[in-house]
Design goal:
The protein has a single domain, classed as Alpha-Beta Plaits (2-Layer Sandwich). Helices cover about 20% and strands about 20% of the residues. It has helices at about 45-55, 95-105; strands at about 1-5, 10, 35-40, 60-65, 90-95. Strand 1 and strand 2 (about 10) form a beta hairpin. The radius of gyration is 15 Å and the shape is globular.
Length: about 110
Amino acid sequence: MYCPKCDKIIDTLKAYCPHCNELLLPDKPKDEEHDFVKIFESSDLGLTAIIKSILINAGIEYIVRGEHMQSILGGQFSFAFGADIGKVEFFIHKDDEKVAVELLKELNN
């Protein structure tokens, strides 16, 4: 498993890095994937749909990670077992970051 935050290969079967709690990837991304940056993270399914709509309407291509890992409680309750499972992360190409951040700035409040 690969931790994008630690930039290390980790020998584990767990979903999260034991050092920083970042969601692990099955393999280290190819170099071209490093051109993507995370612009938004949320456990709110309603926001996920809104963000997709905004990015599509702006013609910005995106990658979503964790969309199909929603817990039964939506990941919104910190006391719930596995609450971190509900996080959805949006990544876009670096070239679109400035525009996307401006479009989504109201959602970050």
